Amino acid sequence: MSDLLYLEDLVVGQKFTSPMHALDAAQIKAFASQFDPQPFHTDEAAAKATFFGGLAASGWHTAAITMKLLASTKPGIAGGLIGAGGEIAWPQPTRPDDVLQVTSEILEVKPSRSKPERGMAVMRSETKNQRGEVLQILTSRLIVPKRRPEAI
Amino acid sequence: MSDLLYLEDLVVGQKFTSPMHALDAAQIKAFASQFDPQPFHTDEAAAKATFFGGLAASGWHTAAITMKLLASTKPGIAGGLIGAGGEIAWPQPTRPDDVLQVTSEILEVKPSRSKPERGMAVMRSETKNQRGEVLQILTSRLIVPKRRPEAI
Fold first, then answer.
1. How far apart are CA B49 and CA B43, in angstroms?
2. For B62-93, how does the pLDDT look when each residue is reduced to its tens digit (9 = 90+)?
3. What is the phi-psi region of residue B86: left when phi exceeds 0, alpha when psi lies from -120 to 50, beta otherwise?
4. What is the pTM for the complete model shown?
5. Which Pfam family, an example, fits this chain (chains A, B) (predicted)?
6. Domain ranges of chain B
7. Given an 8 Å threshold on Cβ–Cβ distance, is B51 in contact with A90?
8. A26 touches chain B (CB under 8 A)
9. Could A36 and B67 be called an inter-chain contact, meaning their C-beta atoms sit closer than 8 Å?
10. Does the ipTM exceed 0.90?
11. Which of B65, B63, B45, B67 is nearest to B54 (CA)?
């Protein structure tokens, strides 16, 4: 079996576990200063008086780290991880000492009606920290090539 | 009227337009090398043979730039832009020469049932390039403080 997964290799319920990523305050501030320069993401002292009560990562930083972890999860998907979109939720803030890991499950696999060479997979990815707290839930629609394109 | 918007200041149909952000290949590769190191995001030549047919930004890079543009849109929201989650779609790839701008519209405003000091706003944000092509549609649930918390 190939090292890479095609649409035919994906089944509902299939699970994947990513490597881990250790976050710290410097990474949180570096991302935020470029993309989300709000006090609760850039300054510990200022963050205390905000909704978050302390420094928290931008949700988009959590999303970006999740992408990095998904891209390094084995086995990979043929053609790469190409998302058409999805739903994202951040049930609680990501904090400076969090170690992130992503567990994913295939929820749906469907061939394309119009494109014989590919299909769509729906995948639910939970990003948790070292205490098992769920920081992000992403349900993504992935474009996945077929190993054997069918005539239509 | 204050420079910052509270829940009471938001109305369905209200629109906001962000500043602009000019992208380039170096930014695309820098983000991708850190968070989404796939060939179609990191290497022009390798990208040609992929689904994208050329260098494209990671969807999460488009999302991060969108956040930056939303954070610098005036007037701002009191307490900052705090998202609980939402839906995201990337109808087409973001390319190296794109100039991004975000137009947003308030779709829904609802006080919290349990928290007298805040509520939720649903906002639809379209990220377009200089040709008006829609690169990202984000429908986000924002946590917005009230100017005058009510007793419940």
1. 11
2. 999 999 999 999 999 998 999 999 999 999 99
3. left
4. 0.95
5. MaoC_dehydratas
6. 4-151
7. no
8. no
9. yes
10. yes
11. B45
